[in-house]
Design brief:
The chain contains one helix and no strands. The longest helix has about 40 residues. The N and C termini lie far apart (about 75 Å).
């Protein structure tokens, strides 16, 4: 019975791993986009007061 349990655990782990990796990549891209947007806002000249 433990062979089947180990097999099922390995299958589930193999199926979950790409999802975790893609989520990590998406989070990294989101952080990079936020950083780039923040840098662009800081580099833009300030609006002149009216």
């Amino acid at each position: 019975m433990s062979i089947w349990r180990d097999f099922l655990v390995a299958v589930v782990t193999a199926l979950r791993k790409p999802d975790e990796q893609s989520l990590a990549r998406e989070r990294r891209r989101a952080v990079e986009r936020l950083a780039e947007e923040t840098i662009r806002k800081e580099q833009r000249p300030a609006d002149p007061p009216e």
